[in-house]
Amino acid sequence: MIRVLLADDEALVRAGVRAILGSDDSFEVVAEAADGIEAVEAVHRHRPDVAVLDIRMPRLDGLAAGAEIKRTSPDTAVVMLTTFSEDAYIAKALGDGANGFLLKSGDPRELIAGLKAVADGAAYLSPKIAQRVIAELAAGAGGGRMARAAAAKDQVDELTPREREVLALVGAGLSNAEIAGRLYLVEGTVKAYVSAVLGRLGVKNRVQAAIIAYEAGLVAG
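and the corresponding structure tokens:
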């Protein structure tokens, strides 16, 4: 059972998300919050597997709440749910360690798939957002892109061969369970490898690691 916190200042939105999740027996909504401060307190109290946060909330917005949750409750995955798809929001949320980013206008099936993915240890971006992130990387002009690629390759070269294998599969969007199956490892071992890779790369989450894997050429664009 995936335990979920829903945080949105609009009760109607919370009810809608709760209804969507209620259609799948994998989920249990353990708490709701109407602002960012309530969300942080609810995470500390209920220890959900996933916190779904609206970006625009009173008292403490979703970006700040998500950063605080990742700082104080790192085992809780943070998914940003918003109508806003501006690059600044995406970059800030992912930079603070968010595990996923979904649009409220997306397909309900995407919400279910995304929450299952992050609960399983993967990162998840709405396809529209993923396209923007990849496009931004691909649009890097000349020397800037080449410099990023060189820096990423230097970082990857510091990893062991097995860690590079794991990083490539993280970059391809596989969950810990899927990586374990691909490499014939137990899931706990994969989790340890992923943690080691994040630490050695100096990144906060799998999305940032995936970007390095992409820039280093471990994942096809």
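(Above: one complete record from the training split.) The domain at 2-134 is CATH 3.40.50.2300 (Rossmann fold).
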